[in-house]
Design goal:
Chain lengths: 399, 284
């Protein structure tokens, strides 16, 4: 079902707007138009529709107009021309009051630099959307706490945003958006400010969330890898114009023009896959802290039968198995020291996957990715093989 | 060439201003009279109240306030204790209370007018382009000039003193409120908007809290400026430490002038540090 429909939407900043639009029609470049009219074209003649429950990624380099486009959807920026329909209602022609109602009930936004209010605690930040809607104190507290709980941050609810890491702050940003229970999530470069591993983690979390929530998500990014990972469909933008819309597959195999092709080739080069690209988040116990009961609980939660063992500095010590942990728990042992098995294969993060394939085939345990003795991630056989096979397929289809 | 310049008729700006003043005073004399009377009554009651409190209790209260406001440090508390005891010892306590009333009233009035004006400026670029030159005018015009309309409207005494002080002390609060709100990061304003905040929700829940420390810096400046008007306002009969300085000046009593001036300096330092400490405490 069609949730959002964008029809011929343009945004021009500055004066001499009609003249500027005329020049865009003649396919003049942005710089030419700026020189001639003093107007900046943000978005030109964008049309697309997004289905309910879809993750629609808008991708482009900086200055391509993608951030302007997402702001047109909730009218943080007023469109110059065109129609934006959400559930058939025309947002671009709406009165201020009607727009306010839509913003409050239908769509929430997540920002690149998190957009958290520094003077409010995490709980108060998460409550914000509900608070301005006039939801009662008890109810909004309950909903906000639930949202923080889902993000795994309830323990920090009375802290202020600047006391948290970037990844945690963006989890709060997402929790704040979800506390409102919107139908549409607008995510403006939501993960771009995070470092790569956290970013990947957040992408996974978003995909997990989407399994259950089924929101309609508009996601802006400048990173094609990110777009391919999370997008059901991807729109590629350049100089304010959408130049191709399609699934990741369609864009990779059939780029619409040279511009898209250069992008895609860029991805290929970076897809000379290393351990870092294929590793998954490690599930581990802290040998200095956790006992066998904690280990068993974590295995249950994460549905694994084997945990990595690390010390408090996250240095790899080995692994423990569910059977050993169960025995130790029965014996009421307080630590897992006695059951840690040190024999585990480790690889550096920049090792090529091709070279790892042989190792992983013979290894009964997953392979740990380790840098400076610290555990970064884990390689699981299935994931490695999958990563390699998709890579070679793509390589073939390019030849 | 000079001849040409000399032959131009004088623009009668001064007579115009005078006739405007005449018109205002004659047509609104009842209005100004009411303000003068009720203002005087209110302020003298506040002064009486302050004088009514035993000096030692007031001093201790201020010392305790200073102690806690500065984060339980002894510096300002000790200074306040010694400074206020010195003023009392010099027999200037009543004058200090009169000055306090004057500063209190002109600061409060400036803040009550200034913050909404600053908010208006931050929200409307048209308002900003009108108010900004007015503020420049108010700040560059010598403070003495305000005494003339003050006297014309309100006669002499504490009320015209407060009037002149307000005009002189208003600009920093207006400017800093405007600046503070305009400096709120764009992404936070967008966040507030994207969740469907009304203009007032955005203002009170996001913009003012985030602009608070800037606004407080403006208020601090306003308080200090209204204190600096105390001496000037004494020329039109405003009571307080300023009048002591003026009297000493007129009679060339260097000693008395120095003592009263020192009293003003002590008072200024105490209220400056106090208002600043309120600001620091709020910043995380």
């Amino acid at each position: 079902m069609e949730k959002i429909k964008v029809e011929h939407v343009s945004k021009v900043f500055g004066k001499q707007i009609p003249q500027a639009l005329e020049l865009v029609k003649q396919q003049k470049s942005k710089t030419d138009i700026l020189k001639k009219t003093g107007a900046t074209v943000g978005v030109y003649n964008a049309s697309f529709s997004v289905n309910e429950g879809e993750i629609f990624v808008i991708m482009g380099l900086s200055g391509s107009g993608k951030s302007t486009l997402i702001r047109l959807l909730n009218r943080l920026i007023e469109p110059t021309s065109g129609n934006i329909l959400i559930d058939g209602e025309n947002i671009s022609k709406m009165s201020k009051d009607a727009l306010k109602t839509v913003r409050r009930n239908k769509m929430s936004m997540v920002f690149q630099n998190f957009g958290l209010f520094p003077h409010r605690t995490l709980l108060q930040n998460t409550e914000y959307g509900l608070e301005i809607r006039g939801v009662s104190k008890e109810e909004r507290k309950a909903k906000a706490e639930q949202a923080l709980e889902n993000a795994g941050l309830l323990a920090y609810k009375d802290q202020y945003p600047n006391q948290l890491s970037g990844g945690m702050q963006q989890r709060v940003g997402l929790a704040r958006a979800l506390a409102n229970d919107p139908e549409i999530l607008l995510m403006d470069e939501a993960f771009s400010a995070l470092d790569p591993l956290i970013r990947k983690e957040m992408q996974d979390e978003l995909l997990d969330l989407q399994q259950t929530l089924k929101k309609t998500i508009i996601f802006i990014t400048h990173d094609l890898n990110e777009a391919l990972r999370i997008g059901d469909r991807i729109a590629i933008m350049k100089d304010g114009t959408i130049i191709q819309i399609g699934t990741g597959e369609e864009i990779l195999t059939n780029p619409a023009n040279d511009y898209v092709r250069t992008f895609v080739e860029d991805v290929d080069r970076s897809k000379v896959l290393t351990a870092e690209n294929a590793m998954v988040r490690p599930v581990y116990v802290n040998v200095d802290l956790d006992g066998p009961t904690v280990a068993l609980k974590r295995m249950r939660e994460e549905t694994v039968s084997l945990l990595m063992a690390v010390d408090k500095n996250r240095r790899l010590k080995g692994f423990i198995t569910a059977d050993d942990a169960l025995l130790a728990a029965k014996k009421h042992e307080q630590t897992v020291h006695s059951i840690v098995q040190p024999e585990i294969l480790t690889v550096p993060p920049d090792m090529l996957l091709q070279d790892i394939l042989g190792m992983i085939h013979n290894s009964p345990t997953p392979i740990a990715v380790v840098k400076d003795e610290r555990l970064l991630g884990v390689l699981i056989r299935g994931v490695v093989i999958e990563a390699l096979s998709t890579y070679s397929e793509e390589a073939e289809s390019h030849e | 060439m000079n001849n040409f310049l000399d032959n131009l008729p004088t623009l009668p700006l001064a007579p115009w201003v005078e006739s405007a003043m005449d018109w205002l005073t004659s047509n609104f004399s009842a209005f100004f009279g009411t303000i003068q009377k009720s203002g005087k009554l209110l302020m003298s009651q506040v002064t009486d109240l302050l004088i009514g409190i035993p000096a030692i209790i007031l001093i201790l209260l201020i010392v305790i306030l200073a102690f806690f406001a500065t984060g339980k440090k002894f510096g300002l508390a000790t200074f306040s204790l010694l400074g206020l005891l010195f003023i009392y010892n010099q027999g200037l306590w009543t004058q200090l209370m009169e000055t306090t009333t004057l500063v209190l009233f002109s600061s409060i009035i400036s803040i009550v007018i200034g913050i909404p004006l600053g908010i208006l400026m931050s929200k409307s670029s048209i308002a900003e382009s009108i108010i900004k030159p007015l503020l420049d005018f108010m700040q560059t015009m010598p403070g003495f000039v305000y005494l003339i309309p003050a006297v014309a409207f309100f006669g002499i005494g504490i009320v015209p003193g407060v009037f002149a002080s307000v005009i002189f002390a208003l600009p920093p609060t207006v400017r800093m409120t405007n600046l503070g709100i305009r400096q709120v990061p764009k992404e936070l304003v967008e966040a507030a908007d994207s969740y469907g905040s009304t203009a007032s929700q955005k203002l009170f829940k996001v913009e003012i809290p985030l602009a608070k420390s800037t606004i407080m810096a403006g208020i601090n400046q306003t308080v200090m400026l209204s204190l600096s008007m105390v001496v000037i306002a004494s020329m039109i009969g405003a009571p307080g430490l300023g009048r002591e300085v003026l009297t000493a000046l007129q009679r060339t009593q260097v000693g008395n002038g120095f003592v009263a001036g020192l009293g003003l300096v002590i008072f200024a330092i105490i209220i400056d540090r106090l208002t600043q400490s309120f600001n620091k405490k709020k910043v995380q």
